[in-house]
Amino acid sequence: MYEEERLIEIQGMSKSFGETEVLHNIDLYIRKREFVTLLGPSGCGKTTMLRLIGGFEMPTEGKILFGGRDITQVPPYRRKVNTVFQKYALFTHLNVFDNIAFGLKLRKVSKSEIEKRVMRMLRLVKMEGYEKRSVESLSGGQQQRIAIARALVNEPEVLLLDEPLGALDLKLRQEMQLELKSMQQELGITFLYVTHDQEEALTMSDTIVVMNGGRIQQIGDPKRIYDEPKNAFVADFIGQSNLLSGVMLEDELVMMAGKEFPCVDEGFEKNELVDVVVRPEDIMVVGADVGMLVGTVESVLFKGVHYEMIVSTGENRWKVHSTTMQPAGTRVGLSIVPFNIHIMRRESSGGVQEVEPQ
């Protein structure tokens, strides 16, 4: 991506509340028409970053640029962004049409233009025919759609979404993930989305920003984040992983679980201490006589599309996902191809901000 496509740039931004620092020296840019997700556990600083971009908080240090212009001190109503919160804050005394039209009326947009824009939004969120309904008569999912329509009708360049699907049940949440992505692509505007749900992030995002302890841990597209985590935190937080300590004996050869394994990673020092991640779906269950590791199936759970088995090889317990099941107590072999062994450099407990180029 070229620099001129950058819409928002965050430069050296930190934020403290009293003596508590919640964001530390954040550098990040967000491109035009991009769906970016801030992903991390509760308390990692992702909502604070969203509020800083929206203008609801001021940074302790650093600045925020929008289209190359410094907006750090610009109030929220003068920023070309709108926000959808987890609590939709709809006006219960207004019907659906008037809720969506509220911001346009404040700006004294003509009645005909309001009518055109509101009806377009109702079509976009699949709520045609609901314009005269009371918002209190709507389901949670329908209220969420109206909140999104109310934000989008003002034609912001950026839509900020703070865990907007958190109150919905699983099936509706999964449906809305796909609809949100479809809306973003149709409108061609930038979405900045906050969640702690890894599935949401992987499903919708063009770019994921993984955060922990007020710092960025990794930036990348969903496949890169999942397949090539930068550190043990990212590997453990995104999906399920087998995390082991290892020693990089030389390029393309690692020692873990007491055995040597060929891998594809290079550029490490000889005998460098490393962390190793192997995803459960990347372990093959084979005969005990041919496995790279041999162990006993401790437990089996049926997960719908696969079985989850815990296999003990003595000092290590491996989580294995497979479409075929081996009963508990069975002796099995485990095999891992070199490409599916991912090596990560050890990091200090302080969580160094190490990110890849965007």
Please tell me about this protein's structure.
- There is one protein chain.
- By secondary structure, this protein is of the alpha+beta class.
- The chain is built from eight helices and 20 strands.
- It has helices at 46-54, 96-106, 111-124, 140-152, 170-187, 198-204, 222-227, 232-237, and strands spanning 6-17, 20-31, 35-39, 61-66, 69-70, 81-84, 158-162, 190-195, 207-212, 215-220, 242-250, 253-256, 259-262, 272-278, 284-286, 293-302, 307-312, 317-322, 331-335, 342-345.
- The protein is globular.
Short structural description:
The protein has helices spanning 46-54, 96-106, 111-124, 140-152, 170-187, 198-204, 222-227, 232-237; strands at residues 6-17, 20-31, 35-39, 61-66, 69-70, 81-84, 158-162, 190-195, 207-212, 215-220, 242-250, 253-256, 259-262, 272-278, 284-286, 293-302, 307-312, 317-322, 331-335, 342-345.
Question: How would you summarize the topology of this molecule?
Answer:
Elements: E1 6-17, E2 20-31, E3 35-39, H1 46-54, E4 61-66, E5 69-70, E6 81-84, H2 96-106, H3 111-124, H4 140-152, E7 158-162, H5 170-187, E8 190-195, H6 198-204, E9 207-212, E10 215-220, H7 222-227, H8 232-237, E11 242-250, E12 253-256, E13 259-262, E14 272-278, E15 284-286, E16 293-302, E17 307-312, E18 317-322, E19 331-335, E20 342-345
Parallel strand pairs: 3-8, 3-9, 6-7, 7-8
Antiparallel strand pairs: 1-2, 1-4, 4-5, 9-10, 11-12, 11-14, 12-13, 14-20, 15-19, 16-17, 16-19, 17-18
Helix pairs in contact: 2-3, 2-4, 3-4
